[in-house]
Amino acid sequence: MDLSFLSLQTIAIAKKGGKLLREASCSFDASWVEEKHSHDYVSRVDRECEQFLVKELHQLLPEAGFITEEATPTPTGHSSYTWVIDPLDGTTNFIRNIAPYCISIALRTEKEILIGVVYEVCRDECFSAYKGAPAMLNGHPIEVSQVETMQHAYAQLELPYNVLDYYHTGGHMYDVMYHNVACIRMMGSAAADMCYVAAGRFDIWFEAFIKQWDFSAAALIVEQAGGMVTDFLGNPIQPDTHHIVATNGHLHSTILTELQKALPTGIHRLNKSLSSPSYITRLSPKKAEHIYTMINQEIVIKERYLDPHFTATLLAKDLKITSKYISAIMSLRYHASFNTFVNKLRIQRVLYMLKDKRYNEIPTATIGMMCGFANKQTYYTAFSEYVGTTPANYRKNIKTQSK
Predict the structure, then answer these.
(1) Which CATH architecture has domain 150-259?
(2) 64: which residues sit within 8 A by CB, 6+ positions away?
(3) Which residue from 127, 154, 219, 295 has the highest number of Cβ atoms inside 10 Å of its Cβ?
(4) What is 3-139's CATH superfamily?
């Protein structure tokens, strides 16, 4: 695969999408806006731009699958490659004509991000990177800053919509940074924020309760610019990670230390000795499967299929499981020997969603991604193995039986 060529073509597609957003902003009507969740908006423009991007990217790489924010029906991928798309990161800014807002496109496999492109429409700035090459801004190399002290740092403090879960964290981090850093800003677009770290404009950014389409492209750009990207616990990011820190590297440990003093609800600091492979092997498979089954049952009972941080919250509160098992289970989610069992439980959640009329308009592939599968190929293989048919056929049969 020629990543250089694909990157250039992806940049061209992102800029075409940016033109659509720019033109739409001139005639934008507030009636186009819907509220997905409290204070979380989507507009007709998001959906139209996403449909355009899916069409263009499918022509560029027909074998790749898609993970999209607005659940556009997408072609089925036939490889390990997946496009991760946010057609309009910063919708709240866009609907009030406030900069920045951008298009974010990443190409990834289950193991790594290969290409990242973020096009910031307002300033006509295209940030890009591909694996093994320098990060670029409009074709020119960029690097993170060399600021080494909080006193001289430019920081971005974002406050997610999950108020109750993040209230303590946001308050603590504001107290830490106010008067201790050179400046604090809140820009309103995770993808743009991270790219500003990559370009050396800011030195620190962190946010929780975001999705992979918000951060995937920008994460690669920051890393290729010499920066550092982890979760709040210092672990490498995964497709279902929702709490992200991006810095110039020099200030990373300082920010992690402060964040871990006031972690958001559902994020538990892992004791290294508990999350190590040696500890995981001491947790018997039967015990691990029993605990994870309890978690899955609670997720289904409470109909919380889509909350990325709900599992850990359940462990801590509803199920009253001790902290050592919390640490072990959260680590086991990424442990190969445990993955087959976890996939089976994910399929159970998929089946509940496919039967639930509230999710009728959501494509079957998107439901699989929502339930934790990293790409369509893994999802379809697991579904076929455990159900004996395809998700689309399963949904079709349900609708036929209900008539």
Answers:
(1) 3-Layer(aba) Sandwich (3.40)
(2) 57, 58, 77, 79, 81, 82, 83, 107
(3) 127
(4) Fructose-1,6-Bisphosphatase, subunit A, domain 1 (3.30.540.10)
